[in-house]
Amino acid sequence: MEPIVVNGLEKVFAGGVRALSNVSFTVGKGEIFGLLGPNGAGKTTLVNILSTLLLPEKGEARVMGLDPAKDSLELRKIIGLSGGYARFLPKLTGREHMKFYADCYGVKPDFKLAKEFQMENKLDTLIEDYSSGMLQRLGLIIALQHRPEVVLLDEPTIGLDPQIAVVVRKYIKKLKSKCSAVLITTHNMYEAEEICDRVAFIDKGRIIAIDTPKKLLRKTKSKTLEKAFIKLAREGLE
Ligand SMILES: Nc1ncnc2c1ncn2[C@@H]1O[C@H](COP(=O)(O)OP(=O)(O)O)[C@@H](O)[C@H]1O
Ligand SMILES: [Mg+2]
Prior knowledge:
Blueprint: E1 4-12, E2 18-27, E3 31-36, H1 43-50, E4 58-63, H2 72-78, E5 79-82, H3 94-105, H4 111-116, H5 132-144, E6 150-154, H6 162-175, E7 181-186, H7 189-195, E8 198-203, E9 206-211, H8 213-220, H9 225-237
Parallel strand pairs: 3-7, 3-8, 5-6, 6-7
Antiparallel strand pairs: 1-2, 1-4, 8-9
Helix pairs in contact: 8-9
């Protein structure tokens, strides 16, 4: 069983915005799969569907064999999700948030993980005094501390200092051996090249290519994924 299977997904928002058109792909066991595309491409919409937060109009998805549209309670237990989703309370500390979310999953808070992300000295700071980079890292810790089977990371390094982004990327690579699959979204083409086994280029709700970064570069005779993306997006228009 492939950890993530997406088949013919369509999402149309009120007002007629077609956020996803016939999106299909699978993520294999042990894979780090990147969903790569510009702002508004549909990346967050797709992650929202996989993580049970949004229902598609058409098509279906499976995460570890579970249907996000039907098995939402079961599925939420085995995924870890980070992105713009975490709603933190300004008058509580990072440590209190870690404990609260650990309790929700029936596990102990993982302070070693906080150390990995260089957050151990910031856990007793109130959320209202957190920088965007600290919020982002706390979101990642909370997404990962219950040791999810499938990890969904929506723009995991957005808002991070370059040095911390390096630490986070390194950790994401290590997730390969800790869970069944990782799906990350990014508009940072360098990041995708650096950490993803395979990437799907997504543009205006459509997947325009799926392959390993190396093969995408070779096929498009490009030096960077950014150039490969631009070529493929242009071809799609012709
Ligand atoms: N709740 C919503 N209502 C209406 N339109 C939305 C909503 N969420 C996203 N969209 C639109 O869907 C498209 C895809 O958005 P999104 O999935 O957030 O893209 P990305 O994460 O790749 O930047 C955009 O055109 C966006 O404006
Ligand atoms: Mg997004």
